[in-house]
Amino acid sequence: MRERPNLLVLSGSTRGGSYNGRLAALAARELALRDAEVRLISLADYPMPLYDGDLEGARGVPEPTLKLADLMMASQGLFIASPEYNQSVTPLLKNTIDWLSRIRDDRYRGLWTGRVFAIGAASPGHFAGIRSLMQLRLILENALGARVLTQQVAVPYADKAFDERGNLSNDRAAAQLERVVSALIEEAARFA
Q1: For 7-119, where are the alpha helices, taking DSSP H only?
Q2: pLDDT-based confidence at 126, cuts 50/70/90?
């Protein structure tokens, strides 16, 4: 019998009512319904200063960064819902990744390569956050060597895409989420 994967889910936005926060919550629920161990977190609970090499040199990596890295190390997979700001990832998400990438402690070896990543975006526009996903994929795969699933979910017109129960009313996006959730569980189980 295959072990239940431990999965971490987060959004690159901490704004109240965030569409990507809703997408992350829905992904977490769908993963849990498929018998995964799921932890949905908010980056607001891991405050980090703007990355600065001088600050890092003087104080090291901030404690919230290490706490988030501990959660990542305990997981076999992550789902990241990435809002789109100016055709790229949010400053919050980029800053978080930048700090995490600065950890040099051997305890965190494999932080990026020892698990699988799934990505998604929700946007009120027609492009559905796809440009953010392209940038996030580039950062995770090319810069950090992470394994990112080819399947992804992009929710257009997100202001109308969720029903009153938090499900996707857009059939295409719902099918994409189904494929992402299934693939994440399957791939993460290989790391379990």
Answers
A1: 19-33, 53-59, 63-73, 91-100
A2: confident
